[in-house]
Design goal:
Elements lengths: L1 H17 L1 H13 L5 H13 L5 H34 L7 H22 L5 H11 L4 H25 L1 H12 L1
Length: 177
């Protein structure tokens, strides 16, 4: 919980100054594969919205659109260049033919469930689109699963802090002591 608090504290000035545009950029880049604290940014923005400092509708739309577009950009990167990069450099990170075949099988059998579920798991969220593209998952099922996953993830991480903002604010205040 302390790490989330630190992440929110780091992002808060950007959210206050640039508003939902900063949130969109953070979520887009995280969904594209950048190691950014997207979830913390969403929680922080939702808490600011609960205090009336950001519009919750804008927060929701920025997060949802950033997540969908980021994953789709990652998908395009994975589809049109990711396999070449992994074949060339994958051995340096332990990505061998056996792992590739296992992941391909996973996406062949359960691709839509993987895409939806990965949205809720750090690191998988960042790599989801790229890996789906590399594994040649068909784009339409990917897009549908991506939209469903982003909608669920956005709903959870914008609604809960917004609705329970007073509780979160009190809890984070205690962490500051």
């Amino acid at each position: 919980m302390h790490l989330i608090h630190e992440s929110i504290a780091m992002i808060e000035p950007y959210l206050r100054h640039y508003g939902v545009a900063a949130l969109f950029v953070i979520v887009y880049l995280e969904s594209l594969g950048a190691p950014l604290p997207g979830e913390s940014a969403v929680i922080g923005a939702s808490l600011l919205a609960s205090g009336g400092q950001l519009p919750i509708e804008g927060v929701f739309l920025a997060v949802f659109i950033g997540a969908v577009l980021g994953d789709n950009t990652g998908y395009a990167i994975g589809r049109y260049g990711g396999r070449t990069i992994v074949e060339r450099y994958g051995r340096y990170i332990g990505f061998n033919d056996q792992r590739r075949e296992w992941i391909e099988g996973l996406y062949d059998k359960h691709g839509t469930a993987v895409v939806v579920g990965a949205r809720f798991v750090v690191i998988l969220r960042q790599l989801n689109g790229i890996v789906a593209g590399m594994m040649a998952m068909a784009w339409r099922p990917f897009l549908l699963a991506n939209i469903v996953g982003a909608l669920l993830w956005t709903s959870v991480w914008t609604a809960a802090p917004f609705v329970f903002g007073d509780f979160f604010a009190a809890h984070f205040h205690d962490l500051m002591k």
